[in-house]
């Protein structure tokens, strides 16, 4: 039986190692793929102060050695921080470490943070401190419910929007008419670290969060058919109105995802792509969609992982059955002699 225990131990170790390897390059922040020129990390040396700086900031933004405060917990403030280096990666994942906190009691705080991947940068405006009718992608961390008719969802609410410059964000409706997907999440006044991950790869946009101190990603948004060009800028902005909060960014870490593309995809000019979405609903709601659009953009890493997991489970089951049969036979043999 000792041999069998050792065998199971070995398989468990192998399985753990495999999970680390397969997941590593997707969400684990594999350091070799971290792109420092697009990342903002403590102690934020040189941010905004030199011509060679990789991050600019404007408005109420305050940079300290341990956080970047986009707005303080005061009324009518707007602040932003922007990467000065355009991003030419085709597949990427941004990890956002943020903190939203303030004195306001339930529902008496606002308005939230927006994360951007857009053509323009440093244009102050009405959408969480940034310009409306933007070109690109935005993820909103909306902490205040403006739309009193929309009681079917609880706030804070995280949502995504892709814009080709023609659509206005409807603040009064919390952007509901233009949102691609979203989820409710307790992201305010938490005592522990809160994170968001935005992944864009092969036309698929995935937003995950880690806001319950469990050190694991929970899916919030997952949509296919999203087209975004390369050469846009990453940024973050926040705004307060009559109600307020401290909106802090602790870090923005950008990882390059190693994904293969077809020769045709490689040869096209990705900077010329117009931001668009061909599939408006979450792939999860479209399982029976006969067009099967979303199936063209699977999460390859996960497929491989599941296959390997099944294979390993098969080996474990075979091992257990084998060991039991072997032991039974030994016992029977003992009885005979
Ligand atoms: Ca709102």
TrEMBL record:
<protein>
    <submittedName>
        <fullName>Lectin, mannose-binding 2</fullName>
    </submittedName>
</protein>
<keyword id="KW-0472">Membrane</keyword>
<dbReference type="GO" id="GO:0030134">
    <property type="term" value="C:COPII-coated ER to Golgi transport vesicle"/>
</dbReference>
<dbReference type="GO" id="GO:0006888">
    <property type="term" value="P:endoplasmic reticulum to Golgi vesicle-mediated transport"/>
</dbReference>
<keyword id="KW-0430">Lectin</keyword>
<keyword id="KW-1133">Transmembrane helix</keyword>
<keyword id="KW-0333">Golgi apparatus</keyword>
<dbReference type="GO" id="GO:0000139">
    <property type="term" value="C:Golgi membrane"/>
</dbReference>
<feature type="signal peptide">
    <location>
        <begin position="1"/>
        <end position="24"/>
    </location>
</feature>
<keyword id="KW-0732">Signal</keyword>
<feature type="transmembrane region" description="Helical">
    <location>
        <begin position="304"/>
        <end position="326"/>
    </location>
</feature>
<keyword id="KW-0812">Transmembrane</keyword>
<keyword id="KW-0479">Metal-binding</keyword>
<dbReference type="InterPro" id="IPR051136">
    <property type="entry name" value="Intracellular_Lectin-GPT"/>
</dbReference>
<dbReference type="GO" id="GO:0005789">
    <property type="term" value="C:endoplasmic reticulum membrane"/>
</dbReference>
<dbReference type="Pfam" id="PF03388">
    <property type="entry name" value="Lectin_leg-like"/>
</dbReference>
<dbReference type="GO" id="GO:0005793">
    <property type="term" value="C:endoplasmic reticulum-Golgi intermediate compartment"/>
</dbReference>
<dbReference type="GO" id="GO:0046872">
    <property type="term" value="F:metal ion binding"/>
</dbReference>
<keyword id="KW-0325">Glycoprotein</keyword>
<feature type="domain" description="L-type lectin-like">
    <location>
        <begin position="32"/>
        <end position="257"/>
    </location>
</feature>
<dbReference type="InterPro" id="IPR013320">
    <property type="entry name" value="ConA-like_dom_sf"/>
</dbReference>
<keyword id="KW-1015">Disulfide bond</keyword>
<dbReference type="InterPro" id="IPR035664">
    <property type="entry name" value="VIP36_lectin"/>
</dbReference>
<dbReference type="GO" id="GO:0005537">
    <property type="term" value="F:D-mannose binding"/>
</dbReference>
<dbReference type="InterPro" id="IPR005052">
    <property type="entry name" value="Lectin_leg"/>
</dbReference>
């Amino acid at each position: 039986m000792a041999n069998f225990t050792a065998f199971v131990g070995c398989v468990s170790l192998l399985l753990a190692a495999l999970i680390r390897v397969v997941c590593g390059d997707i969400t684990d922040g594999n350091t070799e793929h971290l792109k420092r020129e697009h990342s903002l990390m403590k102690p934020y040396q040189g941010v905004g102060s030199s011509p060679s700086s990789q991050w600019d900031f404007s408005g109420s933004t305050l940079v300290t050695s341990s956080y970047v405060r986009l707005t303080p917990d005061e009324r009518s403030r707007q602040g932003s921080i922007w990467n000065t280096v355009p991003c030419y990666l085709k597949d990427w994942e941004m990890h956002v470490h943020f903190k939203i906190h303030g004195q306001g009691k339930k529902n008496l705080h606002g308005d939230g943070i927006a994360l951007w991947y857009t053509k323009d940068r440093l244009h102050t405006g009405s959408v969480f401190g940034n310009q409306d009718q933007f070109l690109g992608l935005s993820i909103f961390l909306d902490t205040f419910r403006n739309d009193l008719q929309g009681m079917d969802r609880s706030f804070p609410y995280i949502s995504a929007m892709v814009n080709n410059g023609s659509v206005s964000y409807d603040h009064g409706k919390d952007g509901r008419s233009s949102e691609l997907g979203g989820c409710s999440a307790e992201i305010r006044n938490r005592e522990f670290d809160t994170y968001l991950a935005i992944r864009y790869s092969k036309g698929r946009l995935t937003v995950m969060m880690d806001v319950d101190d469990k050190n694991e990603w929970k899916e919030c948004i997952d949509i296919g058919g999203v087209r975004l060009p390369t050469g846009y800028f990453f940024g973050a902005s926040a705004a307060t109105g009559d109600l307020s909060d401290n909106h802090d960014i602790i870090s923005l870490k950008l990882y390059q995802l190693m994904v293969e593309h077809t020769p045709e995809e490689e040869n096209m000019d990705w900077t010329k792509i117009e931001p668009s979405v061909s599939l408006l609903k979450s792939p999860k709601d479209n399982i029976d969609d006969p067009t099967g659009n979303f199936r063209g953009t699977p999460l390859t890493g996960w497929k491989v992982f599941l296959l390997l997991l099944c294979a390993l489970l098969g080996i474990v089951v075979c091992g257990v059955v084998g060991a039991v049969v072997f032991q039974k036979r030994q016992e029977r043999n003992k009885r005979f002699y």
